[in-house]
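Lab notebook page, bench 4
Experiment: in silico fold of construct C2
Operator: M.H.
Input chain length: 258 residues
Purpose: comparison with the prior construct
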Amino acid sequence: MSFSENGQKYRAPALEKGLDIVELLARTATPLTLTQICTALGRSQSELFRMAQVLEHRGLIAPSPNGDGFILTNRLFELGMAKAPIRSLVEAAIPSMRGFSDEMHQSAHLVVRSGSQMVVVARTESPGDLGFSVRVGRHQPIIGSNSGVVLFAFAHSDEREQILQLIGKPKRDGRLATFQRQADEARRSGIHSSESDVVRGVTDVSAPVFDPNGVAAALTTPFVHLSAATVTLDEAAKRLAHYATAISHELGGAPVQA
């Protein structure tokens, strides 16, 4: 049964106000005061004050550490992680992720798609003194993600079309065309790597993880180029692909043929 089959028939104004606040904070990189929230949503403080109070009480939003507004907490992410498919994916992946990190002395993280965003659902740290890792819960647009290239590359055709619709019309800067070209290359090679556009000296390497329904996640390492490193980027990429395949076997998945 779907309540949306015949359009929106029933309304819950209070719930809609709360969801509007949550969605606004999710789209905003900086904290927002209640006044700023009201302005952005075109509502009065009397309409949203109690709703913001309830959301804070339920742990969905919280005052920022500096006290300059509200931020979205990880509560919704934690609820999503409690779903059986995600929990099973993480449980299957962690042993292989630890194996990779221990062997290669590099961190690793597992990424899944949520709409047009990529979300980190698990990570393992490098056992060495130096390393770089990505926090669980971090999200970024699929079109700007090395992991996103891999998940798009190995997605079924209908899912690829859905992703393209979520991304929107091609950008004038050519990012979408580049993204699709990289995905085609990743599908042929079975892996994708690119220099991080956030941290110098880091190369992101991603390999697909499959379950019985197709590509389920991307296993990624932000490879740190250390002067005293004993492991090369090529070696790490090969071992990452090996461990991604091991996770796929645990999940009962099989790689998609190029």
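Observations: Residues 38 and 48 are 7 Å apart (CA to CA). The mean pLDDT is 85.
Next step: discuss at group meeting.
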